[in-house]
Design a protein that fits this description.
single chain, alpha+beta, SH3 type barrels, 2 domains, seven-stranded mixed beta sheet, 10 helices
């Protein structure tokens, strides 16, 4: 299901034995645009400590009830490795976190989630030994491709012929936990309108300039199918969007890895 991240913020995270906090923001991978971790504010339970929750642990997301059920216990979360969410998260920190929960690294395979297309696939992996975790931490480089959603919100979007607006929020796919669209506010250039831009059309992100560069002209973007805050992002709307831009849709990859989706598309 596609949902705007404005609805993601404030979602309650429920462990198997009770709630642990609410979603504050998330870290995404700036190469694949997959959401790697939810940043959860534990409130008074852990004295305001913020913890990371990986989509690998997600059992079910109930958007109506505004709740995410995860296969974790409160004790597991309480004893999880500390990560300073105000600082860049290194690959060593990730290795320690994933090793603590017994998850393999998502960066070691051909798919969006390493050896699996869906994050739940990594939850089925065997538990990693303490020695393996230690070895993994030692061999990992400090570099990481994680960026916080809060930091990137507000970045200017640069078309091939000039600026067109700024990143206002994101649209996420909660099946694979990936950003499907950047929601771009164009009010300073095209008053009253917003547009959706796929991360697949992003050529580069300049962190020093706080800009996202896309290989599209302003006029092409301006003539795209209309989008407003109340527009339902249906498959019919997405088909029109991709047809307008002449780009292949992302769900081709999903159908390759999910026979049921391919059957329904026939």
């Amino acid at each position: 299901m596609l949902m705007n991240t404005t609805l993601l913020k404030g979602l309650a995270i429920r462990a198997t034995d009770g709630e642990i906090g609410t979603v504050e923001q998330f870290y995404f991978d700036d190469e694949t645009w997959a959401i790697r971790y939810l940043i959860v504010d534990t409130g008074g339970w852990l004295g305001g400590r913020r913890v990371l929750v990986s989509p690998i642990s997600v059992l079910h997301t109930d958007w109506r009830a505004r709740r995410v059920d995860v296969e974790l216990t409160k004790k597991q979360v309480e004893q999880s490795p500390d990560v300073n969410t105000h600082e860049p998260v290194s690959r060593q920190h990730e290795a320690a976190y994933l090793g603590y929960y017994g998850y393999p690294g998502y960066w070691g395979g051909p798919y969006l989630w390493g050896s699996a297309f869906y994050p739940a696939g990594l939850a089925l992996a065997a538990k990693t030994s303490t020695e393996t975790v230690a070895d993994r931490i030692l061999r990992e480089s400090p570099d990481s491709h994680l960026r916080s959603s809060e930091a990137v919100t507000g970045y200017h979007l640069e078309a091939t012929d000039g600026e067109i607006g700024h990143v206002d929020s994101f649209v996420v796919d909660d099946d694979v936990w990936a950003i499907r669209y950047l929601e771009v506010a164009t009010r300073n250039w095209w008053p009253g309108n917003k547009v959706l831009v796929s991360p697949a059309w992003v050529e580069r992100v300049s962190w020093p300039e706080s800009k996202v560069y896309v290989g599209l002209s302003r006029e092409t973007i301006r003539n795209c199918p209309e989008y407003t805050d109340v527009t339902a992002i249906t498959r019919e709307y997405e088909n029109r969007l991709y047809l307008h831009y002449g780009r292949p849709p992302y769900w081709r990859d999903k159908m390759e890895h999910d026979p049921a989706l391919a059957l329904n598309a026939v």
